[in-house]
Design goal:
heterodimer; A: about 260 residues; alpha/beta; 6-stranded mixed sheet; 4-stranded antiparallel sheet; B: about 250 residues; ABC_transporter-like_ATP-bd (chain A); ABC transporter ATP-binding protein (chain A)
Chain lengths: ~260, ~250
């Protein structure tokens, strides 16, 4: 997992730095003056309620959305630089993603590997995500979990320094979830930065080194799961889920009070 | 990996997508042949034109080919591109270093192969039905090559303009026939009111039809063949540049 860009990112630097990001849809601000720093070589979870605009944030960071204002730096580069150049170093799994339906798993992985100069071995990535047995299966015949594993494989195939996954484990069974977690831990240990969105608190607590909670158009808190729980322990219980509910579920909180 | 290899890999994938879906293959490749056979059977009943001496099927032959190429260009190119965008397939490609131009060229190449097969079938059927002279085959093939490049680029341009498959399907299906009719490919423009002849100058297919008529039937052209070729070539380059500039992944 090394390349020229990766060498420019030290442990104490940020792989992603977002300053004063504002994004509107039809004149309605959905993200406002958002700031976010993601350290290099960590698994960073962005959590938020449904509709908190996690996907909008991710898609704004990777340049899929035009932003109203703000500065976004990925791997020390301004995200507005040449897209093709940046994408050589970043692996992305969008939430609403699809693939050519009549290609097999094997063909899809080989096709995507041909887009990069330095890649992981397609066979290696298929073994890593347990896709070998279904390598001859066509994309349109894959189950949700199989397709999700394939999309994660495609995000990893270019040997990226930074991987951005939008709800990689939504709708899949615990075994596959564990498999994906183990793969992500493995590549983080090799020096890769991973950013993922999730609304599973267990995933955020067990997998992520640090988390950021997106609520009301902003990141309202960032830190390690332990730090966040400890900070709010007196106001709620010591589970991340309760802290999350306390910080984001204002209506629910009023009812409890 | 060089961009030639990427184009090649994308082409192979694109061809597999088409070959593995027989419906697409049937409607783009074999459906126009049905018209050819239909008009051929009508031709024997109607007899040749008094003015041109051409039989019904002889006159319509280039028109049916243009119709077939437009089917590949519009229905076989614009619609799948829009569908790929709607379904998020293009978004997945967007997450890679793949260049717009590489993707567009590869998809045009896939359709070029499909169209080349189509033209070859037309040549064989044309010679077999005695509506195409063997001596005209080479210029016919060259002009068809130019025509299909132009139509495929136009198809791609359309694919970038629409966001919705249903809307595109409606507009392209409705727009296809008048464009062919007013280009003089299906019926002579002199039998229509003068205004339609004026409109025909603004339809690029008119110039393609004009070349076919000059090559196959020695008709007096609207423009010399080279003039017609220049217009189609020029428009192809302009439309290609617009396509690359305006192509939308998302």
């Amino acid at each position: 997992m090394s390349n020229t860009l990766m060498k420019t990112i030290d442990d104490d630097e940020f792989s992603i730095s977002v300053k004063n990001l504002t994004k509107s849809f039809k004149n309605q601000k959905v993200i406002e003056n958002l700031n976010l720093n993601i350290h290099a070589k960590e698994i960073h979870g962005i959590i938020g309620r449904n509709g908190a605009e996690k996907t909008t944030l991710i898609e704004s960071i990777v340049g899929f959305n035009e932003i109203d204002q703000g500065e976004i730096r990925l791997l020390n580069f301004d995200s507005s630089i040449n897209r093709e150049e940046l994408m050589k170093h970043i692996g992305i799994q969008p939430q609403v993603a699809n693939l050519l339906p009549r290609q097999t798993v094997n063909e899809t992985i080989y096709l995507f590997s041909s887009f990069y100069k330095e890649t992981m071995e397609p066979k290696e990535i298929m073994e890593l995500l347990e896709l070998t047995e279904i390598s001859a299966k066509r994309v349109k015949d894959l189950s949700v979990g199989q397709k999700q594993r394939l999309l994660v494989a495609l995000a990893l195939i270019g040997n990226p320094s930074l991987i951005i996954l939008d709800e990689p484990t939504t709708g899949i069974d615990p075994q596959i979830r564990q498999l994906i977690w183990n793969v992500l831990r493995g590549i983080r240990n090799e020096g890769c930065t991973i950013v993922l969105t999730t609304h599973y608190m267990e995933e955020a607590e067990k997998l992520c080194d640090r988390i950021s909670i997106l609520h009301d158009k902003k990141i309202i808190v960032s830190g390690t799961p332990k730090e966040i729980i400890n900070t709010h322990r007196k106001k709620t219980s010591d589970s991340l889920e309760d802290v999350f509910l306390y910080l984001t579920g204002s209506n629910l909180r009023k009812e409890v009070d | 990996m060089s961009s030639q290899n990427v184009v090649k890999n994308l082409m192979i994938s694109g061809l597999k997508e088409i070959i593995r879906e027989p419906k697409i293959l049937f409607f783009t490749l074999f459906f126009p042949l049905f018209f050819l056979v239909l008009f051929y059977s009508m031709s024997s009943i109607m007899g040749p034109s008094v003015e041109s001496g051409l039989s019904f099927i002889e006159y319509l032959f280039p028109g049916i080919l243009i119709f077939a190429l437009i089917s590949i260009g519009f229905l076989g190119t614009s619609e799948p591109i829009i569908e790929m965008r709607e379904k998020g397939i293009l978004k997945t490609f967007r997450t890679t270093p793949l260049k717009e131009s590489t993707f567009v060229i590869s998809q045009i190449m896939v359709r070029l192969i499909l169209a080349a097969v189509q033209i070859l079938i037309f040549v064989i059927v044309g010679v077999f039905l005695d509506v195409l002279n063997v001596s005209n085959i080479i210029p016919f093939l060259l002009i068809s090559l130019l025509g299909m490049c132009f139509i495929l680029i136009l198809g791609f341009l359309m694919g970038g303009l629409f966001n919705n498959t249903e809307l595109a399907s409606g507009v392209l299906s409705v727009g296809m026939m008048p464009l062919i009719m007013l280009s003089g490919a299906m019926l002579p423009l002199y039998i229509l009111p003068d205004i339609f002849e004026t409109i025909s100058y603004f339809i690029p297919f008119t110039y393609l039809t004009d070349i076919y008529h000059q090559i196959l039937f020695d008709f007096d052209g609207k423009l010399p063949i080279l003039g017609n070729i220049s217009i189609i070539l020029g428009l192809s380059i302009v439309f290609y540049l617009i396509t690359i500039k305006t192509f939308k992944w998302l």
